[in-house]
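Subject: sequence -> structure tokens, single chain

Hey, anyone have a minute? Need the predicted structure for the following. Not urgent.
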Amino acid sequence: MCRWLAYSGSPILLEELLYKPVHSLIDQSQHSRMGVETTNGDGFGVGWYGLDEAPSLPGTRRSDEPVLFRGVGPAWGDQNLRELARSTSSGLFLAHIRASTGTPVQQSNCHPFRHGRWLWVHNGAIRDFSVLKRDLVMAVDPELYPFMAGSTDSEVMFFLALTFGLHEDTIGAVERMAGFVEAVGRAHGVDEPLQMTVATTDGERLWGFRYSSIGQSRTLYVSTALSTLRQMYPDNPVFSELDDETRIVVSEPLGDLKGAWNPVPESSFGIVEAGDDTLGRFQPREP
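Reply:
Had a minute. Here:
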């Protein structure tokens, strides 16, 4: 499958999560401990929101459209990614390392996928996608269809969610996408077709989803609240530099610090936003 991470909080250099942790995303591209595959070398990508002003100035806001950098080679060997990561900072970004489930290794198939302000990353698969693909793609809004550039199930899921109202009702749109995939699967005799952990963002809020038709979803973790981590580790300088709104959502933990990572429950969604975050039950429904 794949590995991904989503970060929201104080602006940091991308390398702080992509390269520096003991089990960073780049380390996971070769040594995944919880994925289906140990190696995730079929491309990579990072999408981030820049800042319209210097982060220290009042009134700073994230730029409207996120920036993408994607490559088809293994993330661990891409020097351009390393250079970019040590010189680019953001307060909201998604990163992904890919292990193909059958579709070609090409840039348009690398995550994150982008449409307008929205970014989307996915780990998992639609079972027998080649059988279901036509019916799924034909349900995409005709006005959105021209923006689909790749051939993956992940991108089709994103554009179905957009079709079902991602902008207005994010949770409901992803639930309708999942319900539709399962309904199409049943119509074609494909049992338990959907396996997914997903992160999506509009540049202001971050949503995470963990669900599978079989009820045994891929791993997903969220970082412990910074206020709690400061109490647990008062001498850790990293925690003192980040604000209380900082959260990280990951396919697997970036390190082994006790109490720093919490498993996201089966069949659930989470919202990371200013103020209190939200955790709720994910329930697919047919659109």
